C-alpha cells in the first residue's frame, strides 16, 4: 500500500436517525420507552412518504382504502402493522427510532416482555441480527442480562428530543419545535 491515504483509514459510516439492520451483523440497542403502535402504508400518489396511523380498527380500514389508491399494488399497496420506539444504538452512540414491521422481531420482543425473568425490554439490551438467505430474510433476537441502562444514555433520553407521536401526523419526530395541536 502507498501513502496516498493514512494507514488504517476507514471512511466514516453514515448514521441516520432510524435503526438499520445490516446483514450478518448484530445491532445492539437499548429500548428507552414503550412503543407507539399503529398501521403504515406508503402514499405513492401525493407525498411518496409513509403515512402512519394509530392502532385501531377505524385507522386500519382507512389505511387499507388509501393504500389501494397507490398505482403500484405490490409492496406499496399493503398496510403494515408497526411498532416504533426510541432506542440507544450502541454502535452509532445515539438515540434513534427503531421501527419494526417484522412479525418475527415483534413476537420475540413480546415473548421476552411477557417472561417473568426478563420483563420489559427497557430493562435489558437487545441484539438483533438480520440474516439473508436468497430472497428470505430472518432475524435473530438475543437479550442481555437485565440491568440498568448506562447513566449517559438515560441522561440523553431525558432531554426528550424525540416525539414518537409526530409519526401519526406525518411530522418529523426529531423536530423539537413541533407540538401536537388538539384544537
> Structural class of the helices, strands and pairings?
alpha+beta
| Global shape | globular
Distance between the termini: 64 Å
Helix count equals: 3
Number of strands: 7
Low-confidence stretches: none
Helix % is 10-25%
Strand/helix succession = EEEHEEHEEH
Mean pLDDT: 90
* Rg of Cα set: 19 Å
For the sheet with most strands, the description reads: 7 strands, antiparallel
User: What's the oligomerization state?
Assistant: single chain
Strand content: 25-35%
Structure, explained:
The chain contains 3 helices and 7 strands. It starts with 26 loop residues before the first strand and ends in a 25-residue tail after the last helix. Strands 1, 2, 3, 4, 5, 6 and 7 form a 7-stranded antiparallel sheet that branches. Helix content is 17%, strand content 29%. The protein is of the alpha+beta class and 183 residues long.
Brief sketch in words of this structure:
The protein is α+β, with helices and mostly antiparallel strands.
Essential attributes:
183 residues, alpha+beta, seven-stranded antiparallel sheet
Amino acid at each position: 500500500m502507498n501513502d496516498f491515504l493514512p494507514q488504517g483509514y476507514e471512511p466514516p459510516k453514515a448514521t441516520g436517525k432510524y435503526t438499520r439492520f445490516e446483514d450478518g451483523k448484530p445491532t445492539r440497542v437499548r429500548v428507552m420507552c414503550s412503543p407507539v403502535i399503529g398501521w403504515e402504508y406508503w402514499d405513492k400518489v401525493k407525498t411518496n412518504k409513509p403515512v402512519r396511523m394509530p392502532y385501531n380498527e377505524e385507522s386500519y380500514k382507512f389505511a387499507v382504502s388509501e393504500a389501494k389508491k397507490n398505482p403500484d399494488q405490490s409492496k406499496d399497496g399493503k398496510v403494515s402493522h408497526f411498532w416504533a420506539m426510541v432506542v440507544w444504538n450502541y454502535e452509532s452512540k445515539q438515540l434513534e427510532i427503531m421501527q419494526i414491521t417484522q412479525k418475527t422481531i415483534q413476537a420475540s420482543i413480546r415473548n421476552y416482555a411477557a417472561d417473568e425473568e426478563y420483563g420489559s425490554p427497557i430493562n435489558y439490551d437487545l441484539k438483533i441480527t438480520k440474516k439473508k438467505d436468497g430472497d428470505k430474510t430472518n432475524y435473530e433476537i438475543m437479550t442481555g442480562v437485565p440491568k440498568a441502562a448506562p447513566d449517559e444514555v438515560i441522561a440523553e433520553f431525558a432531554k426528550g428530543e424525540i416525539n414518537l407521536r409526530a409519526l401519526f401526523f406525518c411530522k418529523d419526530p426529531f423536530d423539537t419545535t413541533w407540538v401536537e395541536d388538539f384544537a
